[in-house]
Amino acid sequence: MSISIVINAQPDTCLNYSNRNAAIVLGTLGIDTSEGYGEIAFVDLPRLRQRMLRALHQAGAFRTVAPTDERGPTRIVEVDGRPTIQPGVRVIDPGIDQEGVIRRLREVFHLLAVAHELRSGVTWC
Fold first, then answer.
1. Residues 56-103: pLDDT tens digits?
2. What angle do CA 84, 86, 89 make, to 5 degrees?
3. Residue 123: what pLDDT?
4. Measured in Å, how far apart are the chain's first and last C-alpha atoms?
5. Closest Cα to residue 49, out of 108, 100, 101?
6. Helices 45-56 & 98-117, crossing angle to 10 degrees?
7. Where are the domains of the chain?
8. Average pLDDT over residues 27-48
9. What is the DSSP string of the chain?
10. Nearest CA to 19 among 37, 34, 1?
11. What pTM was computed for the model?
């Protein structure tokens, strides 16, 4: 699943992150993401941009998630009447490190700057 962060006045200008990565970035700005959607009013943009600048100067203090690579259990199934070994489903999560959080914060910072120039709010969902 993912969350898009969209400039209301220019919907083609948007960012799209996994739910977890969006929650980390928006949470850094003090935005509660528990509802899965929300709006940032135009009047709040300067305050959020200042908060983001402060956050960017605290590099190394962001929540990170270690990468994982997991595989479900192997099963034996019948295919055409013969027992066949079927490997379990593999789930890879690339995680997110400090660099990844910083890169996304910078992207959102620039998106908020464009929204401010357009005198527009921002929606995320």
1. 888 678 889 999 999 999 999 999 999 999 999 999 999 999 999 999
2. 170
3. 95
4. 11
5. 108
6. 150
7. 2-124
8. 93
9. -EEEEEETTEEEEEEEEEHHHHHHHHHHTT---TTS-EEE-GGGHHHHHHHHHHHHTTTT-S--B--EEEEPPPEEEEETTEEEEEPPPEEEE--B-HHHHHHHHHHHHHHHHHHHHTT--EEE-
10. 1
11. 0.82
Amino acid of residue 59: A
pLDDT, tens digit, for every residue of 12-27? 999 999 999 999 999 9
Query: Six-digit token pair at 2?
Result: 């993912």
Question: Residue 33 contacts by C-beta under 8 Å, 6 or more apart in sequence?
Answer: 3, 19, 22, 23, 26, 27, 124
